[in-house]
């Protein structure tokens, strides 16, 4: 695992216990994210990756524990998350989750109209700029249904960037994309991280993406309901402590060989 | 190529039972004789520690039906304390059997007991109640924010939704209201003719339309048309995580999505009701002038004399305000609490229509009882 400087932690999860109703899906989840780094949350399907992301983005209140952003806590005593903390977060959902009744310009402008004091022309310029950052210049007036899957993901990323967040949470950004689009999205993440100094928390189980974008990773296990391993994915692959992590990162332990079939 | 029928020869030996499988073991060939042979064997076989040995030639055709048969036989032999020996089978079949054994099928879920079903139902009921009260509370807060001018609701959204649920509904409302007035006039005229009082058809149609039928018919059309579309629209937004993405920006879905929809229906339903009242009276007029030979003026004079008390009109409009609110709230509630799959979206839409219409009828009855007791009828 990368050496963590205690003074430069941007987000910290402290003893999270997560679940739906009384069912516990994850417990004792603690980790830290350094500014300007990319943390990947990985694990097999159903291990609670998206649930963890929901809790970190203010959509699911943990049963126990809290998420700390710099010095503020995301979850207070109330049922709702702290909006001041949430204002620093940008989220890209698995399917893009663009508002289908609005064009891309309106999708990006909505939060700016609600929370900034800029006039309409300034907001439109800013929205166009955000679209150009993700390579979608000229698509301002297209509706989500007119875009390909890859373009929808990039537009979703532009919308997540609309309020200039300090940290971006991406839920399976390359899901449903072909290898070329998936690689382009990975390159975009790296570019945004390096040029804008953004911090990323990415949920994915795409191995190519994990090795190309992650500085640090946590591996969630469905049976242990907890973090099984934590560290740089290349190091985890080279020196695995747990067979599950090795199998995941090397795509091994498939079904018995069926050469004779 | 011709296929040989399946057959099974069972030959008991000293320490083993040999199962010779011949013919082609493919899915579309009948296996009734094999099933009968097995049934006879197991009916007569006592528990023992014999070994069941299976023989099958690699030149025979086979598919997964053979594998299923072999695995089934192993289970049945084990139940008689016998052991299955597949070592004489071709290697491919042995590999597939061990592959299948490594992946045991999950246990068939048992139906929950009656008491557990009750527990679940009660838990669900309390959950639904808490969901509904949270929704209602949040809606009131959103309305409060709107009234003090701190709402996220956009005026352009409200106007656009008003147009969709108001002006766009005019053709269907016109048709339904006209036919309702027409039908009432026909039905009334048959009865009134017996008393030689057919001119009172005008009173019947006008009073029924403004008091009851105008508001009720518009509400039913709105529940099926607009309430269902709210449930479908918000439900699909929920499935596509669009509502979650609003929340991550700190924009309350209640103010941004639900409030404009409910307010639009609250505003437009009385306007449509007033329009439906007029159209319904015109439906009655059509029967009065074309079938009963009244003059238009005579019919209108009679209608006017029936509607001298404007409370008759107002009472219908008051009802329609409540109906509009019910349709809007139920449609939005069902949409906002849709599950995460397309099946639940269908259920939400159906349920929004059924619940809305039920509540409208209940609410209508409450209004009528209240008006009677308060002396307004």
In short:
The complex is a heterodimer of chains A (261) and B (377). Chain A has 261 residues and is of the alpha/beta class.
Describe this structure in words.
The complex is a heterodimer of chains A (261) and B (377). Chain A has nine helices and ten strands. With 261 residues, chain A is of the alpha/beta class. In chain A, a hairpin with a 2-residue loop joins strand 1 and strand 2. In chain A, helix 3 (104-115) runs parallel beside helix 5. The longest helix of chain A is centred in the C-terminal third of the chain and has 18 residues, at 179-196. Chain A is globular. Chain A starts with 10 loop residues before the first strand and ends in an 11-residue tail after the last helix. Chain B has 377 residues and is mainly α. Chain B has helices at residues 32-44, 64-79, 91-102, 114-147, 155-165, 170-193, 201-239, 242-248, 253-290, 296-306, 311-336, 342-373, and strands at residues 7-12, 16-22, 51-56, 83-85. Chain B has a four-stranded mixed β-sheet with strand order 1-2-3-4. In chain B, strand 1 and strand 2 (16-22) form a beta hairpin. In chain B, helix 6 (170-193) packs antiparallel against helix 7 and helix 6 runs parallel beside helix 9 (253-290). The longest helix of chain B is centred in the middle third of the chain and has 39 residues, at 201-239. Chain B starts with 6 loop residues before the first strand and ends with a helix. The A-B interface holds A 54, 57-59, 83, 86-87, 89-91, 93-95, 97-100, 110-111, 114-115, 159, 163, 255-256, 258, 260-261 and B 91-92, 95-96, 98-99, 102-103, 152, 237, 240-242, 244-251.
């Amino acid at each position: 695992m990368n050496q963590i400087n205690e003074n430069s932690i941007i987000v910290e999860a402290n003893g999270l216990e997560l679940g739906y109703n009384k069912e516990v899906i994850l417990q004792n989840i603690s980790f830290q994210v350094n500014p300007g780094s990319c943390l990947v949350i990985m694990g097999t399907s159903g291990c609670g990756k998206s649930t963890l992301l929901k809790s970190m983005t203010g959509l699911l209140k943990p049963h126990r524990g809290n998420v700390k952003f710099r010095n503020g806590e995301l979850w207070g005593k109330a049922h709702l998350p702290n909006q001041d903390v949430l204002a620093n977060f940008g989220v890209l959902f698995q399917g893009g989750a663009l508002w289908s009744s609005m064009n891309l310009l309106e999708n990006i402008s909505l939060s700016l109209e609600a929370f900034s004091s800029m006039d309409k022309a300034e907001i439109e310029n800013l929205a166009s700029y955000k679209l150009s950052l993700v390579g979608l210049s000229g698509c301002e007036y297209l509706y989500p249904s007119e875009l390909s899957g890859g373009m929808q993901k990039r537009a979703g990323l532009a919308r997540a960037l609309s309020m200039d967040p300090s940290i971006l949470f991406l839920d399976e950004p390359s899901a449903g994309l072909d290898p070329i689009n998936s690689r382009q999205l990975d390159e975009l993440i790296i570019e945004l991280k390096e040029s804008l100094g953004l911090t990323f928390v990415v949920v994915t189980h795409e191995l190519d993406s994990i090795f190309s974008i992650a500085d640090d990773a946590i591996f969630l296990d469905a049976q242990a309901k907890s973090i099984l391993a934590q560290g740089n994915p290349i190091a985890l692959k080279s020196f695995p402590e747990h067979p599950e992590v090795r199998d995941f990162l090397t795509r091994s332990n498939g079904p018995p060989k069926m050469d004779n079939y | 190529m011709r296929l040989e029928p399946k057959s099974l020869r069972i030959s008991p030996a000293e320490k083993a039972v040999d199962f010779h499988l011949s013919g082609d073991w493919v899915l579309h060939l009948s296996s009734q004789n094999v099933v009968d042979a097995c049934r006879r064997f197991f009916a007569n076989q006592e528990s023992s520690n014999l070994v069941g040995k299976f023989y099958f030639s690699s030149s025979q055709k086979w598919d997964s039906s053979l594998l299923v048969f072999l695995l089934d036989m192993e289970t049945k032999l084990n139940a008689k304390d016998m052991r299955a020996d597949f070592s004489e089978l071709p290697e491919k079949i042995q590999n597939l059997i061990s592959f299948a054994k490594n992946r045991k099928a999950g246990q068939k879920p048992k139906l929950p007991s009656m008491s557990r079903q009750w527990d679940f139902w009660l838990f669900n009921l309390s959950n639904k109640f808490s969901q509904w009260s949270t929704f209602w509370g949040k809606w009131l807060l959103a309305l409060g924010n709107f009234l003090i001018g701190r709402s996220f609701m956009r005026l352009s959204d409200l106007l656009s939704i008003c147009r969709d649920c108001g002006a766009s509904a005019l053709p269907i409302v016109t048709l339904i209201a006209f036919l309702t007035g027409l039908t009432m006039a026909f039905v009334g005229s048959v009865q009134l003719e017996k008393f030689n009082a057919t001119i009172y058809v005008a009173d019947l149609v006008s009073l029924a339309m403004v008091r009851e039928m105008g508001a009720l018919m518009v509400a039913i059309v709105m529940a099926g048309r607009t309430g269902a579309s709210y449930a479908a629209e918000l439900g699909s937004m929920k499935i596509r995580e669009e509502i979650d993405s609003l929340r991550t920006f700190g924009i309350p879905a209640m103010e941004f999505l639900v409030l404009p929809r409910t307010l639009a229906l609250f505003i437009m339903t009385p306007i449509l009701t007033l329009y439906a009242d007029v159209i319904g009276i015109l439906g009655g007029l059509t029967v009065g002038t074309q079938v009963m030979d009244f003059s238009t003026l005579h019919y209108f004079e009679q209608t006017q004399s029936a509607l001298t008390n404007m409370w008759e009109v107002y009472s219908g409009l008051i009802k329609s305000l409540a109906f509009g609110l019910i349709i809007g709230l139920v449609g939005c509630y069902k949409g906002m609490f849709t599950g995460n799959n397309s099946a639940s979206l269908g259920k939400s839409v159906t349920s929004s229509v059924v619940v809305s219409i039920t509540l409208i009828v209940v609410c209508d009855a409450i209004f009528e009882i209240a008006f009677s007791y308060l002396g307004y009828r």
